[in-house]
Amino acid sequence: MLLKDNFICIGTLGRSHGVKGEITAKLDLDIEELYHNHKDFFLMLEESDLLIPYRVISYRPKHGSCLLGLSKIENKELADKLTNSPIWLAKDLLADVEEVSFNSFAQLEDFTLYTSEDKLVGQINEVDESTINTVLYVLSPKGEEHIIPFAEELITELNIEDGKLSMQIPEGLLDLDALEEV
Q: Does the predicted TM-score (pTM) go above 0.90?
């Protein structure tokens, strides 16, 4: 049985495209490098709380999303049944990507946030990308909510497999003396 702990949700399937079973996908992670570097590249789709493997037989970028051709999905009717299905990727495949690039930082939800000095800030509960400035809503171990501005240049470490994000927190935003050493 495939355990979700070994996978990371990277997006959702959209509507079918054409009559040959291609499906649009909105992905939080760029998988083009993985697709081109693996002869047999599989994504998992969540169906009835189970992860089902599908081999990716075609991949085409398309205006902020992509079109996927998946094994066993050969017509529009089969593709339509998968609309809104979550897409999962094996975490061990992330090591094969030279540079992980997110299309959306919503992928950081449920990560644990640390300062660049490795002090625990808390669990990221929400990533708000609705405005030009991305904001993280973080729940501390003491139950306090912190609202932290986020920018890629503040990241000091990102470990997707462990769900850990370390970043430089702007001075004065947190009482750093109250944070726990790791």
A: no
